[in-house]
Amino acid sequence: MTDTQTPDKRDENDTQVELKIDTTENQDDQKDIITLPGKHLRRVREENNMSAKQVADSLHLEVRIIETLEADDYESGIPTIFMKGYIRNYAKLLDIDPEPLIVAFDAANKSDETETESKSKSKSKAATQKTKYKPKKQADSNDLWPKLVTLAILLTLIIFIALWQFSPQNDKAATNDQTSSKYNIDLPLNQPQSMTENHETSSGDETQTQIPTTFPSSSSEETKTVEQQSMATPSEPTPPVAAPVESQDHSIHVNFKARVWMRITDSTGKKLFQGTGTEGKSLTLEGTPPYKIRVGNHNNVDIEYQGTTKDVKEYPKYKNQKMTFIVGGE
Amino acid sequence: MLKNLRGAFSDDLSIDLGTANTLIYVRGQGIVLDEPSVVAIRHSEDGGAKSIAAVGLEAKRMLGRTPGHITAIRPMKDGVIADFTITEKMLQYFIHKVHGDRFWHPSPRVLICVPCSSTQVERRAIRESAIGAGAREVYLIEEPMAAAIGAGMPVSEPTGSMVLDIGGGTTEVGILSLNGIVYSESIRIGGDRFDEAIIAYVRRHYSTLIGEMTAEYLKREIGSAYSGKDIQELQVRGRNLAEGVPRSITLNSNEILEALQEPLMSIVTTVKMALEKIPPELGSDIAEKGIVLTGGGALLKDFDRLMMEETGLPVIVAEDPLTCVARGGGRALEMIEEHGPDIFALES
């Protein structure tokens, strides 16, 4: 590396040494140590009547390196670690404390590096990086901003996932509660109450027609429930099963063909149902038409309204919104 | 992606899991832990359950002074794991100490320095103990490489650099160029062997048994690798084997030098062998610049002088040689971050 140093450069270095010696000759020793370690080493060596060659032989270094050290030439291409090591060894050889020299070297090397950097700005960047490793600026793990940004993104993601994934399921329990008072769903436990509701809210024809379709299994329990219901409301005569649908009947009947999330509101904005229905289940709702139906999977829901059963997607869309349909409106 | 995301919240650690000391370097913070690799284990009265009584400096103070139910042990031997479970516990303790157990700091990415002569089984043990201690990702780097980077040697340049890392359990010789190891050799001789040599010498010449701590004290205070002008003396106490009672003896630096001859010569031989085996171009580079000494053994007085005289090459001691490997590991992590893991021949 240092073999490539040209004789011209060496001459230039020698001149620099001389100049430095001239300018600092009258200064005290301490100042020399602080500013120029090489010069101090050279002076101590001369005081001990040692030649550069003797020092080089003792340290197993080339004379050229000793000269470079004494010239305080930090641009010789010798890595800093070796320069410092040589200075330490040299100081030990001369029986002087190496630490002040190392401090001086660090100070001088730092200023020298700054100069070199300013000079080398015009030179190629690659060459500079080759001599000294400079990590590019990058986000450190201790920086706060990447953490905050990542946390914000994470939170947003979690909220969206939670809304999308868990909201319908969470509402299931609430739906069941609503079912007990608002509509009929073919859960045996809810049936008596819902039946009562139907009798109270509708003319009864619709309900009666739905009973066999809603509960095709016609289990004994269900039959019993219906009977109980009939007994519970003796004043209200049970309409015949095949009674015609009245024009004032605004009840809506929903049949699920698969697991579908659905929300039904009437024209007053009252939420009649919100939740997930499963395959084979049905529900009957009563409200003020038109009904606004928002449905998750519109391929698997049939709506029966005023005696007409249609796929929900055949109803007009609400303000061209996806998955939202109007039943009983224009 | 998830790893990167988690990486933003955790610190990267470089661990020098040494036989004598464990050092941890945290990227951006420097050396944050430097403790002896010693664990004190407390045995329950029925002899069944074991628990950790102390780790690190506190445990080292207990070495040789423990009651029956406590055992102070060094889980690393010759640079590799001697007791897997205890090493894992020790690592867990150290990582927890520097990294904390906070919400903001999930498992860290860890780079561990291993001796170049360690076997695949030994490396796997180190890796698994680090994972067991809570590391998210474990990289292994060979100690000469880490030592050279930590010392500031130009390892990425196409020029040969030679490093001699004398640790507690092993001594590693590495010749590096272009971020790779051209030649490496590791011998299971280090600071511990120096201590053992001193103990053996004192036993042989003074019929006195001294402890490891005393031997280490002697080595540190008056030990030298090359005969100097001034002779130092030190008084220590040990158990006289003939009388069976503690006695004081005075040793001088020449005696310690004599005691250390055998391990020192083994190191010299290894270095010479390495110089014989490397390509001549690299040999020329090393002859010009010299050998760099790192590790705690480099602090042995005049060790550089001995190497210089024996090899005829310039030999220098790195700055802060004890922390070179850990610092080098930290620097290697930064380089991996910048250039990707392919920059070194890492095992991950």
List keywords for this structure.
heterodimer; A: 330 residues; alpha+beta; five-stranded antiparallel sheet; four-stranded antiparallel sheet; 12 helices; 51% helix; B: 348 residues; five-stranded mixed sheet; 18 strands; 39% helix; flat
Structure description:
- The complex is a heterodimer of chains A (330) and B (348).
- In chain A, 51% of the residues lie in helices and 13% in strands.
- Chain A has helices spanning 7-24, 29-35, 37-47, 52-59, 63-70, 80-93, 98-119, 125-131, 145-182, 191-201, 205-214, 220-232, and strands at 184-185, 252-256, 260-265, 271-277, 282-285, 291-295, 301-305, 308-311, 324-327.
- In chain A, strands 1-5-2-7-8 form a 5-stranded antiparallel beta sheet, with helices on both faces.
- In chain A, a hairpin with a 5-residue loop joins strand 3 (260-265) and strand 4.
- Chain A starts with 6 loop residues before the first helix and ends with a strand.
- Mean pLDDT of chain A is 67; it is low at 1-28, 121-141 and 177-246.
- Chain B has 11 helices and 18 strands.
- In chain B, strands 3-2-1-9-10 form a 5-stranded mixed beta sheet, with helices on both faces. A 5-stranded mixed beta sheet of chain B has the order 13-12-11-17-18, with helices on both faces.
- In chain B, helix 5 (143-151) crosses helix 11 and helix 6 crosses helix 8.
Strands of the largest sheet of chain B, in order across it? Answer: 3-2-1-9-10
Total of DSSP H or I helical runs spanning 4+ residues of chain B: 11
- The main sheet of chain A orders its strands as 1-5-2-7-8
Number of strands of chain A: 9
Name the helix and strand elements of chain A from N-terminus to C-terminus, one letter apiece: HHHHHHHHHEHHHEEEEEEEE
Q: What is the overall silhouette of chain A?
A: rod-shaped
Q: How can the largest sheet of chain B be summarized?
A: 5 strands, mixed
Cα distance spanning the termini of chain B = 17 Å
